[in-house]
Design a protein that fits this description.
The structure is a single chain. Helices cover about 80% and strands about 0% of the residues. The chain has helices at about 5-30, 40-50, 55-80, 85-115, 125-155. Helix 1 packs antiparallel against helix 5. It is mainly α and about 160 residues long. It contains 5 helices and no strands.
């Protein structure tokens, strides 16, 4: 494996692990705090306004970019004979999992966030309709992100 490819894989793995950890940490610690709280809709809407302005967005975007670049570089290395087939397979699988976390966010979590943003701050029914599908998608994106990060790092062993 070429040095540049390895560097991109490390960047992809670290940023994807950070993103996955934030997702799972949020799901495990923040979401349970909303249970039965009348302020849930307003607070979640505020979080959704602040999240794209936070340092988290850098890791989120770097993860997607680095996963995409890693796929291209690994395939180039594979065609040039510069990496083992198993390492390339594991790296590409890891990067695809990392990108899956990005896609789940864009396809499920963001639209749910946008729908919740239309609700009044104390709208318990809106939060109830939002919470279950959002939590499922959040758990899925956290799990695929962490699995992707682990696969990316594993690919460097060969």
């Amino acid at each position: 494996m070429q040095t540049a490819t390895a560097i991109w894989i490390v960047l992809a793995a670290l940023s994807t692990a950070i993103v996955g950890g934030v997702y799972l940490g949020f799901g495990a610690m923040v979401m349970p705090a909303f249970d039965g709280d009348a302020r849930s809709t307003g607070v979640m809407n505020r979080i959704n306004v602040l999240a794209p302005r936070s340092p988290f967005i850098l890791a989120f975007l770097v993860s997607a970019l680095a996963c995409g670049v890693s796929i291209v570089l690994v395939l180039v290395d594979l065609m040039a004979g510069a990496t083992a087939a198993w390492a390339a397979l594991v790296a590409v699988a890891g990067a695809v999992l990392g990108l899956a976390g990005f896609v789940i966010t864009a396809a499920v979590n963001v639209p749910l966030n946008n729908r919740l943003a239309e609700a009044a701050p104390g709208d318990d029914a809106a939060f109830a309709a939002f919470e279950k599908p959002w939590r499922k998608a959040n758990s899925a994106r956290g799990a695929v992100s962490l699995a992707g990060a682990a696969a990316l790092m594993t690919s460097l062993l060969g």
